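Need a sequence for this fold. Nothing fancy.
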């Protein structure tokens, strides 16, 4: 079974583009008598995780039952009603996704053809349930750093969720964006490791373990430029940050990013940014 692993998601999070979960609510529920939640339509994602007891529901009219250590992922647009029996203990995490840039054909992370029964996954290590509990604990704590911890636990929760969902159940547009982010973040990491040199295409390909033609094709596909153009743009973007936020001279910055001299640096910088390095620095 192919799934998206945590390393891929971590790469996505570190890129200039991103797929980021946004926590809306997380609840821990216990029932000592029967309870019914009437039909409602989801506008966001909801993960339902059973700790113990009997949980039954309908998703888009299809009856489902969850067992211990199973997780139901509801997506935007799903019709949902819950039937809760005495002794049921479960947690929920409601979240949305910030997707940048958002493809025109992107609707949800899950395939439009997915069946309700395929939206049930096994959380064998109960990692998702545990992380939901940690988020719930921080939400009611007096910890002044709780927002940082909640974000950390939410990212871990989303990583775990990505790992238990088979790859073929993701929407093609979501997978495409994920792979785009994964490539770009890996490319930028290679650039960082050789930021003071004029990295060649063979060296980039070796860093990826891909052929030169594959790296060239992916740069054209994802960044609309050649690998050399991607490197120049990345260097200029990093240089602009130093011009704004450091006391380094233009000559020192040009040397740090491997330009032959500051005049060459200035020409490249102005071509990409539309203003000279001096103008960039004085504008701050």
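Here you go.
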């Amino acid at each position: 079974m192919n799934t998206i692993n945590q390393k891929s998601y971590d790469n996505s999070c570190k890129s200039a583009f991103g797929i980021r979960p946004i926590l809306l609510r997380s609840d821990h529920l216990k029932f000592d008598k029967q309870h019914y939640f009437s039909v409602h339509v989801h506008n966001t994602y909801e993960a339902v995780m059973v700790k113990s007891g009997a949980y039954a529901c309908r998703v888009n009219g299809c009856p489902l039952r969850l067992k211990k250590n199973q997780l139901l992922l509801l997506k935007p647009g799903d019709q949902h009603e819950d039937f809760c029996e005495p002794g049921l203990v479960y947690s929920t995490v409601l979240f949305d996704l910030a997707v940048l840039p958002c493809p025109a054909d992107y609707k949800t992370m899950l395939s439009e053809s997915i069946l309700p029964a395929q939206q049930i996954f096994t959380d064998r290590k109960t990692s998702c349930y545990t992380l939901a509990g940690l988020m719930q604990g921080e939400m009611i704590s007096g910890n002044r750093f709780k927002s940082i911890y909640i974000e950390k636990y939410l990212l871990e929760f989303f990583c775990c969720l990505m790992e238990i969902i088979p790859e073929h159940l993701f929407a093609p547009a979501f997978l495409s964006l994920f792979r785009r982010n994964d490539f770009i973040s890996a490319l930028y990491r290679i650039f960082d490791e050789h930021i003071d040199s004029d990295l060649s295409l063979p060296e980039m390909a070796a860093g990826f373990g891909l052929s030169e033609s594959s790296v060239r094709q992916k740069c054209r596909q994802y960044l609309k430029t050649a690998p050399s153009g991607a490197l120049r743009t990345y260097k200029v973007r990093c240089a602009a940050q130093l011009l704004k936020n450091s006391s380094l001279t233009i000559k020192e910055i040009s040397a740090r990013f491997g330009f032959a001299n500051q005049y060459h640096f200035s020409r490249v910088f102005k071509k990409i940014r539309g203003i000279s390095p001096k103008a960039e620095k004085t504008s701050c």
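For context: The radius of gyration is 24 Å.
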